[in-house]
Amino acid sequence: APEAELRTLVADTLGGTGDVRFERQVGSSFGARAGNTVTHLLREENADSVAVVTPQAPLLSRTLVDSAAMKLRTNEVVLGPSTRGRTYYAGFTEPIDFEGAFDAPSLPTLAARGRDAGLDVEFVEPSPSMVDGGDLLDALPVLRARFTAQRVVPDYTAAFVHEHGLDVVVEDGEPRVVRE
Asked: Which positions ≥6 away from 174 have C-beta within 8 Å?
């Protein structure tokens, strides 16, 4: 059932699955699965670069992906910093030691693992993650500002925020999420 749901979601979002590759991931944790996938694609399938993107990166855009791809031409590791020391994007042209690399806080760990492997590490623009309710305090103002400025916003996330009237207000010096 989860595989069928994923295929349906991808087909609905992309208008088909003809150009999409689905593979079962192997590993006991997110880091293990990511590491196995990155290493396999780089070593066995001769990919030039591989990126791991977390599903909690609602503001990830084609511009950010393009910027990261350009940086991967001259750096072996490119990281997208997120809130609370997390990483929303991790691109590689060479494998690193992935054991525990995505455990919190992943950003300094991934950077250290890249340097430990003798690789150049670069960064792309920071972007908030949405893992829990507290992350809305970071993501909502960015999303609303982008919408107001008529810049690109993630369609589904923006629609959810709009439909539920979510916003951030500051009361007594403390920010909090509200519903209009």
From this structure: none
